[in-house]
């Protein structure tokens, strides 16, 4: 069987030169493959294998098919040869015989290279060795591959190349395609679930007029006609809640989000989230929705509620629920209720070697204790709720304890997967929180361009009904359900540093 194993750039260059010469010869003979515009493909590899799964060895079917795809192997044996063609659904063997194809077409076939895209017509049969194959009576070169394919495309060094050249990765590693097929299935199932619940999918602006006061750093661009700087959105929340004000009681958006921040196995500067908002419910309603949706999704995609992620067994059928105060006490032994003042919290942080936040209030320090002692313990699905108001500028305060908000995040394998609130609908409180948030940002970064979204405050003044809101990352969810270690494994084209840097 022919194999391409380019070891050096010189090897690749030499093989590329040979392929270009073959193209030149084809064109000189009036057989330019790049002028062909279509091919009458009427069958796929996997479908044929399923249709004739019970066909005995050396049996004929009488079925004539036309297949098209990339030639992934070739074994020339004198007057007869075998090759494998890869199409959208998998691989299938083709049998090419000189007596059936003809002398000149068979000679042309022998000159084809691994990676060439071909169309074949012939009868489906099973070989003596038991492999479903197509006996080729017509063969057409549809596109010439001018670069050799690597035999293997894996390993630590090559992983960077796989991300940069996803097209090669998909060709050589067909299992990679399975991840992205599953990603599409996940999105389809989420949409189906939300649609069944009466939610309406909408689109909101990606370009926004100014930077809001949130801690996430945006990307800036410039609108020439308006001669104004604009910001790529860091969330879809404020626009979606405007729609709730307008009477669209259940809305969601599958949105591309952009944050000018660091990169690691769980973060990419652009990523996909789903945010949804439902009028006349609260964060407990969102908690129930998350649990039901994730259970249904896991069963649909993985076939079981018991899944394995990076060697850990995860039970998606059982979700624990803890307040942040309960979780911190459970895993650190520190009781927030013992702190009477901010100074008490600061002292406790120093005693337990917990990093102090930029604004060291009791609530903010509680969140630091959570990060230090709790998050890395939450392997099984867990809801953490009742977040301090200092770190929850858009969540409604708890009526019986205004130091906390009706907010939760949920964690799986020590990673946060989503965030939900009983949405703040008091315009006076919201305005004050926005202004404080922007002031704190500017105190830390005097040159930042953050502004208060006063139009959103105006929207609230028209009346936002009691509303539950939820946002979660699609990419991390796909990582979980495909057992992928890095966000780059579930993004077709992740952000990469230029090769020359």
Please tell me how large the radius of gyration is: 29 Å
* Number of DSSP-assigned strands: 19
Helical residue percent?
25-40%
Structural class, by secondary structure, is alpha+beta
Count of helices? 15
Mean pLDDT: 94
Overall morphology: elongated
Main sheet attributes: strand count, strand direction, barrel closure: 9 strands, mixed
Gist?
With 501 residues, the protein is α+β, with helices and mostly antiparallel strands. The chain has 15 helices and 19 strands.
Describe it.
The longest helix is centred in the middle third of the chain and has 23 residues, at 174-196. 30% of the residues are buried. This protein is α+β, with helices and mostly antiparallel strands. Strand 16 and strand 17 (401-412) form a beta hairpin. Helix 10 (324-332) packs across helix 12 and helix 11 runs parallel beside helix 12. The strands form 4 sheets. Strands 6, 10, 11, 14, 15, 16, 17, 18 and 19 form a 9-stranded mixed beta sheet that branches. A 5-stranded mixed beta barrel has the order 1-2-3-5-4. Strands 7-9-8 form a 3-stranded antiparallel beta sheet, with no helix packed on it. The protein is built from 15 helices and 19 strands.
């Amino acid at each position: 069987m022919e194999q391409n194993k380019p070891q050096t750039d010189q090897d690749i260059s030499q093989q590329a030169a040979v392929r270009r010469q073959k193209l030149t010869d084809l064109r000189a003979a009036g057989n330019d493959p790049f002028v062909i515009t279509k091919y009458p493909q009427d069958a796929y590899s996997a479908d044929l294998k399923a249709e004739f799964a019970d066909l005995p060895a050396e049996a004929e079917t009488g079925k004539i098919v036309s297949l098209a795809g990339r030639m992934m192997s070739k074994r020339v044996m004198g007057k007869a040869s075998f090759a494998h063609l890869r199409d959208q659904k998998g691989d299938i063997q083709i049998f090419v015989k000189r007596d059936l194809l003809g002398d000149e077409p068979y000679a042309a076939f022998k000159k084809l290279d691994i990676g060439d895209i071909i169309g074949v017509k012939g009868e489906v049969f099973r070989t003596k060795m038991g492999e479903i194959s197509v006996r080729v009576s017509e063969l057409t070169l549809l596109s010439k591959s001018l670069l050799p394919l690597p035999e293997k495309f894996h390993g630590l060094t090559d992983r960077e190349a796989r991300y940069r050249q996803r097209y090669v990765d998909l060709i050589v590693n067909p299992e990679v395609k399975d991840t992205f097929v599953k990603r599409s299935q996940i999105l389809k199932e989420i949409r189906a679930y939300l649609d069944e619940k009466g939610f309406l999918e909408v689109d909101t602006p990606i370009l926004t007029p100014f930077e809001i006061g949130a801690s996430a750093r945006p990307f800036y661009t410039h609108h020439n006609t308006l001669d104004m700087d604009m910001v790529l959105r860091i969330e879809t929340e404020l626009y979606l809640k405007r729609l709730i004000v307008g009477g669209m009681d259940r809305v969601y958006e599958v949105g591309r989000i952009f944050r000018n921040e660091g990169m690691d196995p769980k973060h990419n500067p652009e990523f996909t989230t789903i945010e949804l908002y439902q009028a006349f419910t609260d964060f407990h309603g969102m908690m129930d929705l998350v649990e039901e949706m994730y259970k249904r999704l896991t069963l649909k995609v993985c076939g079981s509620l018991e899944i394995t992620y990076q060697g850990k067994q995860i039970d998606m059928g059982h979700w624990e629920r803890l307040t942040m105060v309960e979780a911190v006490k459970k895993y650190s032994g520190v009781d927030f209720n013992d702190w009477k003042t901010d100074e008490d919290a600061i002292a406790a942080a120093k005693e337990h070697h917990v990093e102090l936040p930029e604004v060291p209030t009791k609530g903010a320090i509680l969140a630091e204790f959570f990060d230090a002692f709790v998050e890395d313990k939450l392997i099984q699905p867990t809801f953490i709720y009742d977040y301090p108001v200092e770190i929850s500028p858009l969540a409604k305060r708890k009526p019986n304890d205004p130091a906390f908000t009706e907010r939760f995040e949920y964690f799986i394998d020590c990673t946060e997967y989503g965030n939900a609130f009983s949405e703040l609908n008091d315009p006076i409180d919201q305005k004050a929180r926005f202004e404080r948030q922007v002031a704190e940002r500017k105190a830390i970064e005097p040159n930042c361009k953050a502004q208060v979204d006063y139009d959103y405050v105006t929207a609230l003044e028209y009346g936002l009904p009691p509303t539950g809101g939820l946002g979660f990352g699609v990419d991390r969810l796909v990582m979980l359900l495909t057992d992928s270690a890095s966000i780059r494994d579930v993004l077709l084209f992740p952000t990469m540093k230029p090769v020359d840097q």
